[in-house]
Amino acid sequence: MRNVIQTIGNTPLVELTSFNLKPGVKIFAKLEGNNPAGSVKDRAALNMIRSAIERGELKKGDKLIEATSGNTGIALAMIASTFGLQMEIVLPANSTRERTLAIEAFGATFTLQEDMEASRRYAQKKADEEGYFLLNQFDNDDNYKSHIKSTAPEIWKDTNGKITHFISAMGTTGTIMGNSIFLKEQNPAIQAIGCQPGIGEAIPGIPRWSPEYMPKFFDPSKVDRIVDITEVDSTMRTRQMARNEGIFAGMSTGGALHVALQVADEIEEGVIVFIACDRGDRYLSSNLFGDVI
Question: What range does the record give for the signal peptide (predicted)?
């Protein structure tokens, strides 16, 4: 018998079949919405909390605070509750109501700030002045190491070592860093491609960082290419995934698919894997699935 923490990881890798791809090209989605709190961030949240407990930095009853665009906050709220920790999540003001309700459902509290950078400043100030423990997912090596431990080995195994391109939206950059490190150790020819919003574009979960706020563990040498994505393209692909593939995810996943399809057009053969980072049901109060494109 397993507890809920033990169900994190080992998510399905599924092939997309509705797109007209070249005979030698395959695209697979890693369905991270199948994690118990509904996103890829379950992995990082668990590794950050469990590692801090193992190092003696955290104990039952301690107060944590973390700034997040949403998915990490839900994952931290769920995992903190199982370890008997108090959790405050700091979110940008444009976070969907589904996110804040999920955080409250797991027994955590939330505070809204103007944007992601303001949320990070607020969390740091409260940690400095009020004794909260700040996991700091943006500078915490346990973030990207969670993917070295779990996500990337699963992808390598499930593609029988045939993956040629790995694609991920970049929020904290932990997903692309950890997967790139592991996969390139197996085969240095594997391409790691990141997605970020274009200038002036707003895509939930993946800010376009100003240089001073770029996560400290981000190593540009591990990323072969960074592609700017738009709201229009990301929305279109998110809806196509839901209607044609039965994959229900958020806008950043649609952006990753859009880049995967661009890569597919560029090559004659290859195995492309992109991260479907969460579930679409936490975007239903937005217009992501509302207007027909």
Answer: none
Query: Does the pLDDT value for residue 251 go beyond 80?
Result: yes
| For residues 214-229, average pLDDT | 95
Cα separation values, 18 from 162, 165, 293, Å: 21, 20, 17
- H or E segment to which residue 263 belongs: helix 251-266
Mapped onto helix, strand or coil, the DSSP state of residue 99 is: helix
Helix 97-105 × helix 71-82 angle, to 10°? 10
Buried (b) or exposed (e) across 258-276, using 16+ Cβ within 10 A?
Answer: bbbbebbeeeeebbbbbbb
CA separation for the pair 276, 33 (Å, rounded):
7
The residues carrying an active-site annotation are 41, 252
What whole-number distance in Å separates Cα of residue 30 and Cα of residue 197?
Answer: 21
* 279 has a pLDDT exceeding 60: yes
